[in-house]
Amino acid sequence: MHGHSYRVELCLRGPVNPETGWMVDFAVIDDAWADLHSRFDHHTLNDVAGLENPTCENLCAFIWDAISKRIPQLATVIVWETADSCCSYHGESA
């Protein structure tokens, strides 16, 4: 077994609210990510329910499934496994 220090990017797409100047408040993104972070950080990903085969590709889809329910503006999830190796996921319909 070996470990990684992944970097995750959540990319959103949509109109900016003219009153707030935001598409989504960063606090909403932080809250959605916090749930996953607590399940991932310093844990064996193989032991996370639904992520028994935690490849970079499967991790992208797992994160998409969790975050897109809370943030419908989610357009892409990018998971960096190393400084020069990553995977991106755009949902099933992309």
Characterize the structure shown:
The chain is α+β, with helices and mostly antiparallel strands. 30% of the residues lie in helices and 21% in strands. It has a three-stranded antiparallel sheet with strand order 1-2-3, covered by helices on one side. The radius of gyration is 14 Å and the shape is globular.
Write a concise keyword list for the protein shown above.
94 residues; alpha+beta; Tetrahydropterin Synthase, Chain A; three-stranded antiparallel beta sheet; 2 helices; 30% helix
Short description, anyone?
By secondary structure, the chain is α+β, with helices and mostly antiparallel strands. It is built from 2 helices and 3 strands.
CATH class of the domain at 7-14 and 23-77: Alpha Beta
Distance between the ends: 33 Å
User: What is the CATH fold-level name of the domain at 7-14 and 23-77?
Assistant: Tetrahydropterin Synthase, Chain A
Poorly predicted ranges (pLDDT <50, ≥5 residues)? none
- Per CATH, the architecture of the domain at 7-14 and 23-77 is 2-Layer Sandwich
Strand tally is 3
User: What percent of residues adopt helix (DSSP H or I)?
Assistant: 25-40%
Strand and helix order? EHHEE
Radius of gyration: 14 Å
Instruction: Provide the residue-averaged pLDDT.
Output: 91
Structural class: alpha+beta
Shape from CA axes?
globular
Largest sheet: 3 strands, antiparallel
Instruction: Please give the order of strands in the largest beta sheet.
Output: 1-2-3
| Percent in strands | 15-25%
CATH homologous superfamily placement of the domain at 7-14 and 23-77: 6-pyruvoyl tetrahydropterin synthase/QueD
Helical stretch tally? 2
